[in-house]
Amino acid sequence: MVDSKNSINLLLSKVYFAPLTLEDIEEVRLWRNNPKINNFIINKNHITAAQQLKWFDNLGENQKYYFIAKVDQEKLGLFYATQVDLGQKSCEPNGFMGNPTYFKSPIAGLIIVEFFKKLFLELDFETLNGKVVRDNVSFIQLHALLGAEISEDESKNLSYITLDKARFNETITKLLNCDKN
Length: 181
Description:
Layout: H1 4-14, E1 15-19, H2 25-33, H3 35-38, H4 49-59, E2 66-71, E3 74-85, E4 90-97, H5 106-122, E5 127-133, H6 137-145, E6 149-153, E7 158-164, H7 165-176
Parallel strand pairs: 4-5
Antiparallel strand pairs: 1-2, 2-3, 3-4, 5-7, 6-7
Helix pairs in contact: 5-7
């Protein structure tokens, strides 16, 4: 019998976030333009290769908040922080699974949890403030499970999510029985 806690911990031990590089941006663009992803993100505009390169070139200092999620060497998606406020120790987490094998899978949820751990524990943010398309029900449910405060704006078809470090640490410790460090 497989011990699910050990299986989850094994998977999580293999997840890492590599810095986004120029070599990644075409694959990210193809992921981003995929209708299966595009339906669940706020900016649905099709992106050309030239637009993607310009975007990457304009990231500047913010590039340090953009990551490719990987398990072993397999690229799974793009995860990043915008609206970074170092004084308030807050940011807006964003991201998507690019590899269709993992859409709406438990692995996607675990990757998001690991990204939040990175934001809170490695990058030392205290609060995550995000927006989610209301149709992305599984993502909203994951945030609720993690203890986030959620409000809705039906006129914009968005849910607004706030998650603080203390609540996240408390909830994740209970859910996964993992160490806070």
